[in-house]
Amino acid sequence: MFGRIMKAVQLIEIGKDLENREIPIPVPKPDEVLIKIKAAGICHSDIHYRDGVSSVGYRPISLGHEVSGVIEKLGSCVLDFQLGERVCLNYMITCGKCQYCVRGSEQFCEQGKMIGKDVDGGYAEYIAVPIRGIYRIPDSISFEHASVMMCSSATSLHALKKTRFKPGETIAIFGLGGLGISAMQLAKIFGARVIYAIDIDSRKLKTAKEMGAVPINAKKNDPVKKIMELTAGEGVDVALELIGLSITMEQGVRSLARFGRLGLVGITKDTFDINSYEIICREKEIIGVSDHLLSELPFLFNLAEQGKLDLSKVVTKTVPLEADAINEVHHRLKEFNADFRTIIKP
């Protein structure tokens, strides 16, 4: 069966819809495994790749970096995994030997490549990847939820850690997509005193309220004014910008209290204005958040196994491995009118 043709949905031309294609099933190298994909998340970053906001390694390329599946073939040097094991993938392919990998910051690996960006990803029936970064899925966690955990949940966890979020602090979360809904739950687990959830989608805000957050509709309110009103003019201890818009980045800065920390997670090429007087005189911090770490995954999966991280509220839609269905989701994401997280099921 190996060496046969598989279905994939690929980016052919920047700024254009993806297309259905038939390409060879990849053959795993000695240190790789071939995985039959069971679930692949559609992330807003995929829109950046499609539109050229972030570059891809080559074209045609299969996007998709939230991936889970079953091991179907082992490379000749693979001893630690077995056929049929349920696994999900850290989306960074890293060397494990450079200065960044050795110190545990492998997202900056000197030879690192990202699946779905630098190499073919999960918008396909199969994927071949090195065993470093493959994580076994506990029986209690579905393929759909495991795939989302490898980006949405993991990046949200890393953002909370980077911003040094502490029990008893307040937090504002700008953007209630896959990352935002995970960030809300994780902030609550970490002991947040109050969680402010900012979005323009009334459906998502309703869900946020049901989950215990204070919803702020950015269509009807100036989020900063509303946060200041609700915090007696103090602001929040931590803000996470998960959208990638200059306006929400600027709002994130202004929503902070003294010593407040803004975690920038969303991606954009646009710049935003910073009032240096406000930053300096209130000792605010702006912190870049890049991806996540392998060392953070065991804790994340433990939370999911215990039922503390409820990913049923994250995965709200599934689509087949078909270009039309995936392109429709991309269009909705670009318009900020999509579900929390949509999963492709080949």
What does this structure look like?
This protein is of the alpha/beta class. The chain contains ten helices and 18 strands. Strands 3, 5, 6, 9, 10, 17 and 18 form a seven-stranded mixed β-sheet that branches. Strands 13-12-11-14-15-16 form a six-stranded parallel β-sheet, with helices on both faces. The protein has a three-stranded antiparallel β-sheet with strand order 2-1-4. It is globular and about 65 Å long. The two termini are 17 Å apart.
Within CATH, the superfamily of the largest domain carries the name Medium-chain alcohol dehydrogenases, catalytic domain
Q: What CATH first level of the largest domain would be assigned?
A: Alpha Beta
The fraction of residues in strands falls at: 25-35%
Helix content: 25-40%
Q: Unreliable segments (pLDDT under 50, ≥5 consecutive)?
A: none
- How is the biggest beta sheet arranged? 7 strands, mixed
Tell the overall outline. Answer: globular
- According to DSSP, the number of beta strands is 18
CATH fold label of the largest domain: Quinone Oxidoreductase, Chain A, domain 1
What oligomeric assembly is this protein in? single chain
CATH architecture tag of the largest domain: Alpha-Beta Complex
Order of helices and strands: EEEHEEEEHEEEHEHEHEHEHEHEHEHE
Our count of helices gives 10
Topology:
Blueprint: E1 5-11, E2 19-24, E3 32-42, H1 44-51, E4 61-62, E5 66-74, E6 86-89, E7 92-93, H2 99-102, E8 113-114, E9 126-130, E10 134-136, H3 143-162, E11 170-174, H4 178-189, E12 194-199, H5 202-210, E13 214-217, H6 223-230, E14 236-241, H7 246-254, E15 256-264, H8 276-282, E16 285-288, H9 297-305, E17 315-319, H10 323-334, E18 341-344
Parallel strand pairs: 11-12, 11-14, 12-13, 14-15, 15-16, 17-18
Antiparallel strand pairs: 1-2, 1-4, 3-5, 3-9, 3-18, 5-6, 6-10, 7-8
